[in-house]
Design a protein that fits this description.
By secondary structure, this protein is α/β, with parallel strands linked by helices. The protein is 43% helix and 12% strand. 43% of the residues are buried.
Length: 432
């Protein structure tokens, strides 16, 4: 699952050059009540459909599923072309990542099948936040089976060294808010003589600061820079100037190296990383995959700020010939109790079905985290996400914002220059 690349990938325009016609379209009209065409950009949805015993196919043997996997950098252009052309070339069901979900939800009236009726059936057991994101003009167009609260994953051995304890409750006291986090960064820097950094990249802090926002990027048709985003800008500058971060780029080779103690500084000396800010999916897909010999030396705390990162929504084409079968597929995958329980146990996903959360949350004991029950804590964290500020323009704006932030953080521009350039770029490219 390569979800962590999504915020940085640009959609390819090559598929837009293809015509709307195609020989493959005719097969979709065969047995219209028995076939559902599903498109996704990751293998995750395919696994949910194919998993024996509780997957969609296992419980719906009379339905043929035609599943297509497209690389994420090509997915939205392929989907745009299919929806624009309509007809049998469009998928019945498709996955939407958080980085582009609102683009489609906000066009729901034109392209998407309303899911209001199935939401009414399951709303009493579903987390409300994913539904907010999937709703536009009082219609539900997308539903998700996941909630992804963010947390801080820290090295237990380093916590003992610097704080005297690796107990999550004690560590949380050192990271409970932004001032405490900065105090901890200073302490770690001084006690290690600059060989241990609290984070590998200050970019890790973007999603936590984004979680502090109270206003959308675009409000009443105008660009608005929330004070939390300006605070993030200053934090990145502080982290760089005081050498509290290792100065590597998020998702780079060096960023991953910090997870397994193979990171070196510019002089070739060993450098260690105290913690990583990661969403729930990051434990399994990122940290475990790259920890190497540090496995078991990790713990998890809520950290200084509540935040949310990631998630996939399911939506359907309004011109589908199988609306009831399509809605049943979405209902099953996002809310069915047996499915959600089986999938959560298999993958570690924090499911959006809160009844399932309550049923299974006390059964987890994660060896990678020293036996900690992280699942119960993440379920509690997920309840703190109250309001969606996700908009269709977020991805483009945030790419420009991060350019501005790091031009200031690394001393290439003054803050005023960086902000002015950001506003100009947004105006010229997006019109806000």
């Amino acid at each position: 699952m390569k979800k962590y690349y999504f915020a940085f990938l640009l959609c390819s325009a090559a598929l837009a050059l293809l015509s709307c016609s195609g020989k493959s379209n005719s097969s979709k009209n065969e047995n219209p009540g028995k076939k559902i065409v599903v498109w996704s950009y990751s293998s995750e949805l395919g696994n949910m459909i194919d998993t024996p015993s509780f997957g969609y196919k296992a419980k719906h043997p009379g339905v043929q599923v035609d599943y297509s996997l497209t690389p994420v950098d090509q997915f939205t252009s392929k989907l745009d072309r299919a929806l624009d052309c309509g007809g049998s070339g469009a998928p019945d069901v498709f996955a939407l990542d958080v980085s582009f979900v609102r683009k489609y939800i906000e066009e729901g009236k034109e392209f998407l099948l309303p899911l209001d009726d199935i939401y009414e059936q399951v709303k009493d057991k579903m987390d409300s936040y994913p539904v907010q994101v999937g709703t536009y003009d009082e219609h539900v167009y997308g539903l998700s089976w996941q909630v992804f609260p963010g947390a801080v994953f820290y090295r237990r051995s380093l916590a003992k060294r610097f704080f005297g304890s690796d107990d999550p409750k004690m560590v949380q006291q050192h990271l409970k808010d932004i001032p405490s986090f900065l105090d901890a960064a200073k302490l770690i820097n001084e006690k290690s003589y600059g060989t241990v950094y609290i984070v590998s990249s200050s970019q890790d802090l973007f999603m936590p600061y984004k979680g502090l926002r109270k206003v959308h990027w675009v409000t009443n048709g105008n660009l608005f820079i929330d004070p939390a985003m300006q605070s993030y800008m200053e934090m990145c500058r502080t982290m760089h100037v005081k050498h509290y971060d290792a100065g590597v780029q998020q998702w780079s080779e060096g960023w991953f190296a910090g997870m397994n103690d193979t990171l070196t500084d510019s002089a070739g000396k060993k450098a260690q990383i105290f913690c990583y800010f990661l969403p729930a999916w990051g434990l399994h897909s990122v940290l475990k995959a790259n920890a190497g010999d540090t496995a078991g030396d990790w713990g998890m705390v809520a950290g200084p700020v509540h935040y949310d990162c990631g998630r996939t929504w399911l939506a359907a084409y309004k011109g589908t010939k199988n609306p009831e079968a399509v809605k049943e597929m979405i209902r099953y995958l996002v809310s069915d109790d047996d499915f959600c329980s089986g999938y959560a146990r298999m993958t570690g996903d924090i499911v959006a079905n809160v009844h399932t959360q309550d049923e299974i949350k006390n059964t987890f004991k994660e060896p990678f985290l020293g036996g900690q029950n992280h699942y119960a804590e993440l379920c509690e964290m997920s309840k703190k996400t109250k309001e969606s500020l996700v908009q269709g323009s977020d991805q483009a704006i945030e790419a420009l914002w991060n350019e501005a932030v790091f031009s200031y953080a690394y001393g290439e521009k003054t803050k005023d220059e960086a902000l002015a350039e950001f506003r100009s770029h947004v105006k010229n490219t997006l019109g806000f």
